[in-house]
Structures are given as structure tokens and as C-alpha cells.
């Protein structure tokens, strides 16, 4: 086509092309068209768009308003008017336009998100929240976002990231794209960028419930508990009420040690839906932690009653240690096992939990062959689902031992945070560490908290600097820490753990057992902290750990050879620490504590420079919350019956004895480690 019409189309296309790069030229081009065709709707739209981009939204508003009046079906004109009104501070006009736009074009997410922002400006919070939710719903059908999500779910992270970043160049304030980009980073293991992107999504769309839910879980993983609580308090106020929001809030409260508040939430949920097995189980957990054993047993049995195949509910009962599962329980669990399809990937957790529970039930019945058979099956199923690199872990322990030598520590000189507050209790799980914690937390100057992840988080962050190539090896990284760096890291630990302290007692306990790997780092960044090593007979400790299913972590415990090798690595590294700084770590031998309790408690308190208190001897009267597997045992006076319980299974423990070797033979002393093969 030729002639005036073709010339106008060409001029209009050129003006549109210039909108982003040169809005003044675009405005001039549109006005040139309007001189030839005064009522040309698209030229009017381009002029309004150009004026808004030039920072003159008020000048754009009249012409865009007139265009919308005359051509109500040009949705782009409504969108431009709404944006101009928003930028000009004419919020009510923007809201009116956006409500019109979202009625006519509900599938365009950006209209909903802009409407939500305008509604918040005038205090219409619930309407804004619902607008955000409508925007998220509209985004769920967006082809570009669906393509990025598919790439992410198929682990094509680079492709998904490229799609989303291209989109964000075009639409910088797109909440769903930001949330997806956050999840891609999380799946890659980049927690810092994951948090950045998801926080941005929530900032852009405060009513984006799924993004806030994800953000709370990321904050929990990062142990940023006060922030998680702030966000979950917002989430439970969503107009789209969900029991899942209440459950998440209860989880945050549990992590903060506020068991009673969590209990109240669970009880309120059960009042509405009394057959909710998962809530019954969660209620059982908080009751157990508070020492309310009878009520906990009732809650766990309710969970198993409402879902008989719920393996974790059965294991929660078995894991109380002081509860014996009888013949009726065994029959119910065997029936549950028979009803499950072993090759169904969705029920693997139920299967291994049931096997662990039956192992405990047959142990109580003194049927040790049947007990071992179920423990073995449970461990085999669990081991297939976890990653544990025994060889790599041994190499890490050796690198740590080779680093924290006496000359190295002397050469590092003074430094670190001088706070004397922390008392670290380290060792293997099931080594008696909870008993030591209960004894110490019964002292008037010591506060018990829980197994705190902060030191492991700090250590992991430092190790990542090696993994990412900033340093050639672990020793080079540690050597680079200046006295100021070490002070800053120690202060970070003190600050991050403050949320767990509920009293003004001068000392607090961190009972994360795995911190034995970080004793050298603790000595560098918290030189005045006290360190207690809780140690138990190798066969007793390792077998007890092997027959214990842990809710998370402790991946080395699901194979007798793995756990024996881990115990050996632990003994070797602790021996290296002892050689580097004799007396820095106080060792508590569990069997000695059980047989000569007062003497061992006095030795322990002397190491901590604390006076003896009778309450430490009567630790079982302490009603503090205890979350570990020994929660019920430490509420009773010390008993000796369990010390040699492993002997009932001795005929099956040959692989464990073999891998322990000289560590077992020398116990409670430590063998002289030379250059013999490590395993």
C-alpha cells in the first residue's frame, strides 16, 4: 500500500520504536501524525506514553482519559492512564482505571499487581491482598513463566534463569518471575541469592502468599528465626485462610522454643478437624518436649489411629524410649506394613519408620533376632535415600587435624570474641550429651537452649570459600582470618544465638553434637567458650545411633560400617585437638557419669569454674523443654540398665567391631594414632 495511509503507519511505527530509547522523539513523531490526523487513537496513545516516560504524567492524563472515554476497548490506553495517574499521585483515578482494566482483562497479571499497590496507598489492605492473589493466579497461566518453571523442574537451571532475567529486563517488577528466580537459586544451593529474589517478590507483592511461605521456609533454613516469625505473622492474616499457614507458624514457634504457643495452635486446628493425623503428631512433639509424656502418648496414638500406616507416628511413640509397644501395637504395625506397596516411592518414609518402630517393639519384647531384622531393613531403606561420603568426610577430618596443630594455633595469636557465654557440648548422637546438658542446665548460672546450628552455618560459609576456589585449601582459608575477622565471626555467633536465650544467666549451652568437627574454629573465634566432649563406649554409642532414626541430618548413622568409621574419625580429630591444646576440651565418659555421678558432676563444674549445686545432682527435676531423642530419659534419675544393651545384638555387630579396630580396644583411652591405614 502507498499513499498518505502508508506514510502515517510508517511514522507511527517509528514513534513506537523510539518510545523507550528517545521518548522526546516519539512524542514529536506522534504530534506530527496528529497534525495530519487529529483523532488518530494510536498516535494519541503514543503521545501519552511518551509524555509519561518523559516524567510528565499529569500532561499525559487528559489526553489518555479522553481516549479511554472515546475508545473504551483500547485496553492499552486504560493501562497507560492508570500508570500515569499512579505516577502523578492521583491514586483514586488509578484505582478506578485498574479496576476497569482487570474486569476487562483479568488474565493480565501486571494490572492486578499495580492495582494492589494503589489500593495499599489508600489503606484498602485486604482488597490489595486479594488483588495480589489475583495477579499470582493470572501469572500461573503465563507461557513464559510456565516455560521457565518447566526448565527449573527438569534441572535446566541456566535455561530457566535466562528466560526469567530476559523477562525482568522487560518487566523489572514482576513478582512471580522474582520468586521463580529465587527457587532456581535455592535449588542450586545459593541461599543468599535465593533469599534476595524471594524477598524482592514479597516486597513487590505483599499479598503473594506462596512467595511469603517460601521465604519463611528459606529463613528457617538460614536460622533467621525472628524474621521468619515476622513474616509468618503476616501470612496467617491472609484473607485466603489456610491451616497450612497456622502449621507453619507453629513450626517457627517450635524452633524459637515457644512450645506452649505452638501447642495452642495445634489444639485449635484439631478442634476444627479432629481427625488430622499430622496435627496430632505435631502436638505430640511439643507435648513431649515439654515433658508432658501422658498427653504426648495420647496425641501420637491419635495420629496412628486416624492413619494406621503413618510410620512416623509409630516411631514417635517408640522414640519416647520409656514407652513399650506391646503385642497389639506389633500386630497393628505389621498389618500397616502389609498394606503398603514396597515399590511406591511416596510411602518409603512410612516403611522405614515402621521398621524402626517394630525394631524397638521387638527389642522391648526381647525378641532380638526379629528386632535386628527390622532395624536392619529400616536402615537399609533410609540409607538409600541419603547421601553420605565416608571417604570424603574422613579426608575433611584429616585436613582439619592437619590445620589446627599447636604451632598453627600459637602462630595465629590472640583474637576472637572474648565472650565467655557459650558452653559447647559435642560428640556423637546418643553419647549422653543430653544428660550432660540437663545436668548443666539445672545450674543457676547456666541456661539450656537446644542444638543450635549457628556454628555449623558459620563453618559452612567459610568452607564455601574453599569450594568456590577463593582459597586452595582449608588451611589457607583459616590462615587468612585476621584477629578482626575472628572477632567478627565470634560476635556474629553470639548475636545469632541471642534469640534462643530466655534468661539473663551468664552461660548458655549449645548442644549441637556435630560441632566436634569445629572445635578448632571455636577456639579461634570464641577463645573463652567452654567445650565439653560427651563420649560413650563405641559399640554402645554406634549401635544406639544405628537403631535411632533421626528427623534430619546424621546421615552416617544408617550403616554399621559408616557409623563406626565416623566414630573413628571423631576420636582421631578430638585426639589431635587434645594434643594441640591440652585441657581445652573436657571429656565426660558416659559410663563414668552413670557409675559415679556426683564425682563426675563436680569435675565438670570445676572445668566450667562453677560452684557445685545440688540441683545438678537432681537434674531430673528440671522441667525445661528437651527436644532430643533422650527427652524422657533425662527426666528420670540415672540408671545403669542401658549401658551394655548392645550386647543383646553382639552376634550381628562384627562389621562395626572390625571398622572400629583399635578405637574399640583402647576405650576409654585413645589409641596412639600413627601412620597406620585409617580404615
TrEMBL record:
Keyword Transferase carried by entry: yes
Q: Name one Pfam family in it.
A: TPR_16
Q: Which Gene3D superfamilies match?
A: P-loop containing nucleotide triphosphate hydrolases, Tetratricopeptide repeat domain
Identify the stretches annotated as TPR repeats. 277-310
Q: Which InterPro entries match?
A: P-loop_NTPase, TPR-like_helical_dom_sf, TPR_rpt, TPST-like
Reading the lineage from the top rank, the first entry is: Bacteria
Q: Which UniProt keywords apply?
A: TPR repeat, Transferase
Q: Spell out the PANTHER family in the cross-references.
A: PROTEIN-TYROSINE SULFOTRANSFERASE, PROTEIN-TYROSINE SULFOTRANSFERASE 2
Give the protein name, as stated in the record.
Sulfotransferase
Amino acid at each position: 500500500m502507498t499513499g498518505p495511509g502508508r506514510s502515517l503507519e510508517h511514522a507511527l511505527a517509528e514513534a513506537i520504536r523510539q518510545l523507550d530509547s528517545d521518548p522526546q522523539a516519539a512524542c514529536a513523531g506522534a504530534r506530527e501524525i496528529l497534525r495530519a490526523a487529529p483523532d488518530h487513537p494510536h498516535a494519541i496513545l503514543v503521545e501519552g506514553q511518551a509524555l509519561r516516560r518523559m516524567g510528565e504524567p499529569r500532561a499525559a492524563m487528559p489526553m489518555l482519559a479522553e481516549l479511554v472515554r472515546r475508545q473504551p476497548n483500547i485496553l492499552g490506553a486504560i493501562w497507560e492512564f492508570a500508570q500515569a495517574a499512579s505516577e502523578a499521585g492521583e491514586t483514586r483515578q488509578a484505582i478506578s482505571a485498574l479496576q476497569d482494566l482487570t474486569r476487562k482483562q483479568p488474565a493480565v497479571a501486571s494490572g492486578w499487581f499495580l492495582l494492589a499497590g494503589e489500593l495499599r496507598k489508600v489503606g484498602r489492605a485486604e482488597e490489595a491482598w486479594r488483588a495480589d492473589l489475583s495477579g499470582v493466579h493470572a501469572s500461573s497461566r503465563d507461557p513464559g513463566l510456565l516455560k521457565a518453571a518447566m526448565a527449573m523442574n527438569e534441572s535446566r537451571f541456566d535455561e530457566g534463569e535466562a528466560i526469567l532475567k530476559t523477562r525482568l529486563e522487560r518487566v523489572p517488577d514482576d513478582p512471580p518471575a522474582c520468586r521463580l528466580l529465587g527457587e532456581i537459586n535455592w535449588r542450586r544451593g545459593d541461599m543468599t541469592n535465593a533469599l534476595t529474589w524471594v524477598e524482592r517478590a514479597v516486597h513487590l507483592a505483599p499479598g503473594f502468599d506462596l512467595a511469603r511461605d517460601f521465604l519463611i521456609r528459606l529463613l528457617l533454613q538460614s536460622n533467621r528465626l525472628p524474621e521468619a516469625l515476622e513474616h509468618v505473622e503476616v501470612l496467617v492474616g491472609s484473607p485466603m485462610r489456610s491451616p497450612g499457614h497456622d502449621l507453619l507458624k507453629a513450626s517457627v514457634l517450635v524452633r524459637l522454643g515457644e512450645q506452649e504457643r505452638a501447642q495452642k495452635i495445634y489444639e485449635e486446628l484439631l478442634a476444627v478437624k479432629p481427625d488430622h493425623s499430622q496435627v496430632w503428631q505435631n502436638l505430640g512433639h511439643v507435648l513431649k518436649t515439654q515433658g508432658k509424656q501422658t498427653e504426648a502418648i495420647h496425641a501420637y496414638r491419635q495420629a496412628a489411629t486416624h492413619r494406621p500406616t503413618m510410620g512416623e507416628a509409630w516411631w514417635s511413640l517408640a522414640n519416647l524410649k520409656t514407652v513399650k509397644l506391646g503385642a497389639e501395637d506389633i500386630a497393628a504395625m505389621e498389618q500397616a506394613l502389609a498394606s503398603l506397596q514396597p515399590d511406591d516411592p511416596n510411602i518409603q518414609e512410612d516403611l522405614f519408620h515402621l521398621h524402626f518402630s517394630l525394631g524397638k517393639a521387638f527389642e522391648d519384647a526381647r525378641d532380638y533376632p526379629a528386632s535386628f531384622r527390622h532395624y536392619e531393613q529400616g536402615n537399609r531403606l533410609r540409607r538409600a535415600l541419603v547421601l553420605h561420603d565416608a571417604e570424603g568426610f574422613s579426608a575433611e577430618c584429616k585436613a582439619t587435624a592437619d590445620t589446627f596443630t599447636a604451632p598453627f594455633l600459637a602462630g595465629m595469636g590472640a583474637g576472637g570474641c572474648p565472650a565467655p557465654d557459650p558452653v559447647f557440648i559435642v560428640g556423637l548422637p546418643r553419647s549422653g550429651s543430653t544428660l550432660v546438658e540437663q545436668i548443666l542446665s539445672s545450674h543457676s548460672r547456666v541456661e539450656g537452649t537446644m542444638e543450635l546450628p549457628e556454628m555449623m552455618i558459620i563453618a559452612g560459609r567459610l568452607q564455601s570459600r574453599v569450594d568456590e576456589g577463593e582459597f586452595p585449601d582449608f588451611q589457607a582459608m583459616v590462615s587468612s582470618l585476621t584477629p578482626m575477622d575472628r572477632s567478627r565471626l565470634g560476635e556474629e555467633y553470639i548475636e545469632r544465638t541471642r534469640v534462643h536465650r530466655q534468661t539473663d544467666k551468664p552461660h548458655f549451652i549449645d548442644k549441637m553434637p556435630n560441632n566436634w568437627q569445629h572445635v578448632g574454629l571455636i577456639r579461634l573465634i570464641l577463645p573463652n567458650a567452654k567445650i565439653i566432649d560427651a563420649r560413650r563406649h563405641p559399640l554402645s554409642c554406634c549401635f544406639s545411633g544405628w537403631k535411632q532414626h533421626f528427623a534430619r541430618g546424621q546421615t552416617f548413622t544408617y550403616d554399621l560400617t559408616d557409623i563406626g568409621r565416623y566414630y573413628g574419625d571423631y576420636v582421631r580429630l578430638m585426639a589431635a585437638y587434645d594434643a594441640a591444646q591440652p585441657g581445652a576440651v573436657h571429656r565426660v565418659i558416659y559410663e563414668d557419669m552413670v557409675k559415679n555421678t556426683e564425682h563426675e558432676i563436680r569435675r565438670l563444674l570445676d572445668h566450667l569454674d562453677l560452684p557445685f549445686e545440688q540441683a545438678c545432682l537432681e537434674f531430673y527435676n528440671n522441667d525445661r523443654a528437651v527436644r532430643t531423642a533422650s527427652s524422657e530419659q533425662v527426666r528420670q534419675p540415672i540408671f545403669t540398665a542401658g549401658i551394655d544393651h548392645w550386647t543383646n545384638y553382639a552376634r550381628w555387630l562384627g562389621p562395626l567391631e572390625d571398622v572400629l579396630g583399635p578405637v574399640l580396644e583402647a576405650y576409654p583411652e585413645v589409641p596412639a594414632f600413627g601412620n597406620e591405614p585409617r580404615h
